Amino acid sequence: MARNAEKAMTALARWRRMKEEEERGPIARRPHDVRDCRSLTDAERFRKEIVRDCSKKITAIQNPGLGEFKLRDLNDEINRLIKLKHAWEGRIRELGGTDYRKFAQKDLDAIGRETGNSKGYKYFGAAKDLPGVRELFEKSTEGEDHRKYRADLLKNIDAHYFGYLDDEDGRLIPLEKLIEEKNVEKIRTEFAEKKANQPTSSVPENIYQLQEGEDDDDDDDLKTQESTVVGEDGRPMTIRHVLLPSQADIEEMLLEQKKQELMAKYLD
């Protein structure tokens, strides 16, 4: 009798569930591409379904007796669901819904530091003890105690670190002045030695300088050219033109001067 009552209750439960589904109307199936979903309500429902499936698989993977192959399959499936969940959370944000990534729980390591590794392949439950995976975790934690993080380094930074209080005791300025005097004296000595060893360069002759006893009007040594012109009063006038050196003459003079300087520098 009890068995018939249980069957009746089961049939009644199925009938009530069917009636509820009829009242709700047809339920859209989850599309393969999240961009095909246009309804925020459906996107929220699909995310809940994925989270529910992921929770069940995470609970099942805690059992180490499932075997290596089953554990690896479960771990692959969990990673696939997590990736799918992130995709639906992004679609929900695009449709104007809640930003679940903003309020997501952060991954922390053994001592409570944030790992910052929210992407990539992860291992859950008994999958962490699989052959090859255990060695992977041991390598990642190698030297963890000797590693210094930014927060640990910032603890020792104060005014002394930046040198703000170096002049408070009055000992730094006299030491700096002593070093400065030594450096100045060293530079002076090096400059004097360099100047003494430097060969005297030949100074170009000033062609415009007048010798003693010469007058400004005495231009017999200059190359000139005379020309005769008729003035306004009708009388002829002689004009003497000074011939200036051409561009080729100037270049030849500079080249000869450069040769003299090089010969004085390397042959003396």
UniProtKB/TrEMBL annotation:
Region (Disordered): 212-234
Protein name: Pre-mRNA-splicing factor ISY1 homolog
InterPro entries listed in its UniProt record: Helix_hairpin_bin_sf, Isy1, Isy1_sf
Record Pfam families: Isy1
Keywords: Nucleus
Keyword Manganese: no
Biased composition (Acidic residues): 212-221
Family from the record: Belongs to the ISY1 family.
Position of the signal peptide: none
Gene Ontology annotations of biological process type: generation of catalytic spliceosome for second transesterification step; regulation of primary miRNA processing
